[in-house]
Design brief:
This protein has 579 residues and is α+β, with helices and mostly antiparallel strands. The protein has 3 domains: 4-201, Aldehyde ferredoxin oxidoreductase, N-terminal domain (Aldehyde Ferredoxin Oxidoreductase,  A, domain 1, 4-Layer Sandwich); 228-415, Orthogonal Bundle (Aldehyde Ferredoxin Oxidoreductase Protein, subunit A, domain 2), CATH 1.10.569.10; 426-578, Aldehyde Ferredoxin Oxidoreductase Protein, subunit A, domain 3 (Orthogonal Bundle). Helices cover 42% and strands 15% of the residues. The radius of gyration is 22 Å and the shape is globular.
Length: 579
Amino acid sequence: MRDSVLIVDLNNYSYEIEQRPDLFEKWIGGTGVAVQLLKEYIDPKADPLSGDNVIVFATGPFTPAYPLASKTVAMFKSPLTGNLGESHAGGRTATSIANAGYGAIVIKGESKKPVYLVIENEKVYFRDGRVIWGIPDSLIVGRIIAENEPGRGIRTMMRIGGAGEKLVRYACVTTETYRHFGRLGLGAVFGSKKLKALIIRGRKKYTPVDPKKFREVYDEIYRTAIESDAMKKYHLLGTASNVIPLNELNSLPTRNLQSARFEKADEISGEALAEYSLGRRIACSHCPVACIHLATLRIPYENEPYFFKTIMISYDYELIYSLGSMLGVGSRDGLLRLIHRVESYGLDAMSTGVCLAWATEALARGIVSEKETLVKLSFGDVESYLKAIDYIYEQPNEFYRHLAMGVEHASGIYGGKEFALAFGGNEMPGYHTGHATYLGYATGLRHSHLDSAGYSLDQKVKEMTPEEAVDRLIAEECWRQILSSLVVCFFARGIYTADLISRAFEPLGVEITEEELKKKGEEIYREKLKLKIDMGFNPENLTFPKRIFEVKSLHGTLNEEFIRKAKDYYVKKVKEIVG
């Protein structure tokens, strides 16, 4: 296992390498290690957009040893929520960090001028980034850097677009071309540090302690992955396959969750996109599944008939929900144009879509006027939304400056909190399946659907008490701390069972039992929860917008008393867990 930690200080353009075998031995890697490093280097009360904020990137012991261990964890203080930020990205990032010789990278301080970093094995280069600072299109920035930095095929390239520079609180970091550290505003943290991009390359190799046993386990994982029905679904349609089933289950948030069914769901479904728009599939490094689906979009040149530029656009379920059904957009080309605009600026698609959906309803209700929105926002109007996305980046007035700080903040200024769909300060993902979904958004330590998969619990279990729901959500999130410490793609959670993980560690020279794994997950969860509380999180302050109780879901109309009892029980559980 890699036990080297690279610490980069932007204050004085220096760096050092520490050997931390104790850290990785106790906390595995990924999330487990990132929590500890963030605790070491950050003041929990730090301003997220100051030089006192710290970014930690961490990979796991299975990177790049085993298939599907292809994620990188980024941990920081979120400018969107003012609390713990954690985002995961695929692509080539994890493999490149590992091949450069590191288990984790810590970036602290704030540069005096725009820079981009190049990490190559034991060396760190601080490049002058002024020439690319101010370019709002992250895709163009990527092409410029790619032409000037060697390592094509082995490097990773993270960068921000204009949204990160303008400190939009939900700006993301794009890695390679089609993957992202999307949620909770890492792009704004980059921007506040004047850090435009981060390139990592290396050619180090590692051999397992027991090559024969390693090959046996590797082959088992590989065969299971390519033969799995779930993985075949991800390859054929990707997560976009969820659109039609969720719509039929009355669980697809539509028009700011004024409804949970979208009459044009078939037109923007995974099946329709695959039939009419799919250009190719690609995979993250060391993944045999290739779940990343790229659509082709032809854009005509102005005043040039029959001349087009063709662009490739990555799509998945969350983007279809947030920029499709949530905005009432039922045109495939219109949806793809919105995705492309969001991608270009480096914005988180979910937060952007939810913010625009709230703004559309707020305008319709007269809470705000066109004086604030500058364009007549209406559900289904692609052109108005394209312009509004420009305004989120440009921030031409007070309204868009507030909207760039998130829907919870904007609704606190203008009103309309009852239909502002945020949980713990983070805009909602695309599931309206039942009580467990919203409890998962609220209680999950990232306020993400992927923390504890409440949407899945809603679909599997018909009846639960509030206490049972909370207990099951916490148990699932504890186990996912192991997966995000390895760092394994959550799509492979059915493959990486406790038994297989225990056996996969053996050829790497580590012995850990299934029971020890379970306890370690609970311990990492506790450490993360403590850090979250140190940063100001108080479970008693969790709120649930009234809108979620007004629209029927898979489980019918949700019960406010159920949610209240579950919240009270969660508050009690938090006190028990952290002591």
